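I have a small job for you when you get a moment. Can you supply me with one protein entry, sequence and fold together? It will help me judge whether the discrete encoding reads sensibly. Write everything out right here, beneath this request:
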Amino acid sequence: MSLQTADPPTAARAAVHSMLGRLIDGAAHQVSALRTASRSSLSLSTPHRIALLRLDRIHAGMLLRSAAENKGWRFLVHDGDRVVAAVNSSLGGKGEHRFAHISEGPFVAGTEQAIRKAESLEAVRKGRFEPVLLSVPALHLIALWLQNLDSNADLVMLIPPVPRGLRASRALAADDFAAVLVDLAARAPRESNAP
């Protein structure tokens, strides 16, 4: 089997489609890959949820599934057969989906590469896994979280660029990844509450 991409809410897809069209129609946008694109050449693929893991939720024995928060949806943007950007929706306070941002660069290319590598993993080929983009902003870390749909045996692949000393695109068991996060969090500078 290949990765099982979830079906995003219609509102999430509509929010990113609408804004993507406006970005193409407008002359002033920041994504260089879209400056020469036309609406007809662009398409969205590989919808996946976005999960956020805050520093204060990282601790020994944590389970990713309970520590991470769902924050919206992300789609890869193709210009023809090339992935050129990613576009995100976010969940508002009342559960509504809205456009969040569009990005290009190493994390976009890294996501595509991680997905391709994940599809070649034996566990993924034999099982059912849903890709989720996991962001750990305090540790400057983005990962492809492969949630096992049949058990809690999740896998995680870091997306480059990664913090020094870590290897990208290597599948780690979720518990091993959590231990890495605990170690990184222990060394991360804490924000001071002092005036």
Q: What stands out?
A: The first strand starts at residue 42 and ends at 52.
